[in-house]
Amino acid sequence: MSRDRFTQLMRYLHFSDSTQQPLPGNENYDPLHKIKPLLTHFNTTFQQEYTPHRNITVDETMIPFKGRVQFKQYMPQKPHKLGVKAWVLADSQHSYIQYVDIYPGRNVIHQTHLGSSVVKRCLENSSLVGKGYHLYTDNFFTSPELFANLYENFGTYACGTVRYNRRGLPKDIMCKKPSGINLRGDMKFRQKGSLVASVWRDKKKCVHRSNNP
Questions:
Q1: Is residue 49 within 8 Å of residue 96, measured between CB atoms?
Q2: Total domain count for the chain?
Q3: Model-level pTM?
């Protein structure tokens, strides 16, 4: 195929009817309208072709992109600093993607409890609720409220690193300098119902939360 032929095909490639797209300002406006059918097809195929192992994870990823879209993100800490941010639920053993959700930007998605809503949406849309999966997250997503909800209402165990300033954590060990955590191997934990908070010393302090009693 010639270069000009390829360019022409890319120019006219569409996955949805642009005349049916609500305009910006409309309550039904969706910046992902043009790729929504393709994204839905991918997610459906992911789930039809593969059943994840017990351990799964939810995390964010960057899709490198330098074109013109309103939801393009800049994240300097990522290997690909500029592109489209996506939330991904994947199998921890083989890294197979089970569900992907494109982040349309802060003007479209409410930012309050964003991490919790992302985790629950990924589990629901990947049909993994109530099946006893073990979910692992980083400190952006981990919170006592989310983990309690996952255990009680989603039938999902969870474990993840956690930030000191999250509400609902035991302050005697979830602080910058917990007493008795000085040498490598030192450890303390607290449990309340199904939730466990622990801190231990490796090369530096590690704190995490789980809902596996």
A1: no
A2: 1
A3: 0.84
Residue in 163, 167, 134 with CA at minimum distance from that of residue 150: 134
Q: 168 — alpha (psi -120 to 50), left (phi > 0) or beta? A: left
In this structure, is residue 118 part of a structural domain? yes
Would 102 be classed as within a structural domain?
yes
Instruction: Yes or no: say if 60 and 98 are a contact pair by the CB < 8 Å rule.
Output: no
Write out the residue range of the structural domain in which residue 90 sits. 14-126
**Under a CB-based contact definition with an 8 Å cutoff, are residues 188 and 213 in contact?**
no
194 in a domain, yes or no?
no
Could you list the pLDDT tens digit for every one of the 213 residues in the chain?
A: 899 999 999 888 888 888 888 888 787 888 888 889 999 999 999 999 999 999 999 999 999 988 888 888 898 888 888 999 999 999 999 999 999 999 987 766 666 788 999 999 999 999 999 999 999 999 999 999 999 999 999 999 999 999 888 888 888 888 877 888 888 888 888 998 889 998 888 877 777 778 775
Q: Examine residue 180 and state whether it is found in any structural domain, yes or no.
A: no
